[in-house]
Amino acid sequence: MEEHVNDQLKRHLRRLATERPYQVVAGSAAALLLASGTGALLAAVDDDAPAPQRTTNAAVAEVAPRLDGAASRAQARIAAPLAAPSSAAPSPSATSAAPNPDLTASATPKKTTAKPAAPKPPSSKVLDYDYEAQSTYYYCGPAAVRNALSATGVDGTQDDLAARLGTTEMGTNSAYDTTRVLNEMVKGEPYRTRLIPGGAATPAETERLRADVVKAVSAGRGVVVNIAGDATDVDGGWHSFPGGHYIAVVGYRDSGRTVRIADSADPAVPAYWISTAALAHWAATRGYSA
Prior knowledge:
By secondary structure, this protein is α+β, with helices and mostly antiparallel strands. Helix content is 48%, strand content 15%.
């Protein structure tokens, strides 16, 4: 009986030696269990026969190196493909770093659109206006405003403008009133009041008057000036208004250094040229609307 069991065990172990590693492991466990069971069975039959137990263990020990060798060879065949180096080229996304968006943005110059420069005003310009002499001796204010408005294409009567200005027989109060009414009549309220408070205009005030006249006339608007005293025009004409007077500036030349005056006081001399410096001094202690 012992020989029969040993023969079966050997055949089983030889078959396991050709199986895959995981089957070898399972078979080894089964063989050990079978061997143990055989020893136990023999011990149960004859307690005085220990030799079969040694023979069975020897058979297992004899086959174990073969099993280990077979398992090692099978494991080597499985491990070889796993250990083989990969010949595939690395992915570009794995080897190259992603671009830094901050660096990319800073490297790209931002396009800036420069504002077009304002067109240079002409060196001379005279507005097309509708002259009208003042209808009363104290309507110089309404007449000057009316003549200036006519250059802008705005119509108005002297009586209507006198009511707006608050003009009385004492005249029109100040340049603040002419500025207010001009802005009521002209779209966009472009007029501003400029004062020359001293007894004579400073160079800065003269330059500001020149720039204001050029800007207004270039835009198609006349300027109203409140003057007092005497002045001489470029042709030698003498103009005297000791109690005050209003005139309209309707043009300029020499880049504003000389201005064209529409004067409602005398229809015989409706207009004349005067230097901007002389006009600035004439407006001293008063002001203008531009």
